[in-house]
Fold this protein.
Amino acid sequence: MLIRTFSLVSLIVAAALVPVRFLPVQAAQPQFSGQWDMSLDKTNRKCRVTLRPESGPNGYAVAMPFGCKRALPILVDVERWKGDPDKNLVFATAAGTTILDFQWLPDHKALTSKGPDGEAYHIEPADHNAKVAANLVPAKPTVLDAPSLNALAGKYALVRDPKIASKCSLSLLAGKPSPNGNFKAALEAGCTDAGMKIFDPVGWRIEDDKLVLIARRGHEASLAKLPDGTFGKDIEPKSSKTLILKKL
């Protein structure tokens, strides 16, 4: 009995001496987080990667579609990112080994890095969060006064081809904006435009005279204001990839 008691006490003391490991407190969302478009110079190989704010042992998490690793094999082992918005952006393995070290180009609109065979990779911000992190756009969207807000809010027809009647409409709602300056948006019932249904807009804001739509999953689409008062994206004379929002 004495031996058992001594053994139990020994175990309790030993457990008390083992250092307690606390999980790190989640820091505020780091800069650079957001969606970025990466490409291989002189090719049509591209990939949209998401630099996530969740921290790990050797940096922050990187997410990307599986097809990215086929298009850009150098991304096969990329699982972490780290960097300083004023200096560089590093892609690394889960163990922290650097794979690509991106440096800002002179115009400060994109970063570039050399691969192991001397090939050049470019990466540039693709959404509002990434552009803010890169100091390319103001952190706050354009503040709309009541008349401007009411003039923009309302129902819009989505036009793919001016010669064909619209089969989809979208409502931009007024009201109180979210803390990040976004207003609510919603597709009208009966919309048959497959692309817009997949995008599924839930928010909007005005930024530098452009209409920015926010998808349910968080990515964004920016539409330029056209001379006739409509908003358009990818408007090219010889392109079929046209998206116009016309107020009804």
Remarks:
- The chain has two domains: 34-133, 146-247.
- The two ends are 88 Å apart (CA to CA).
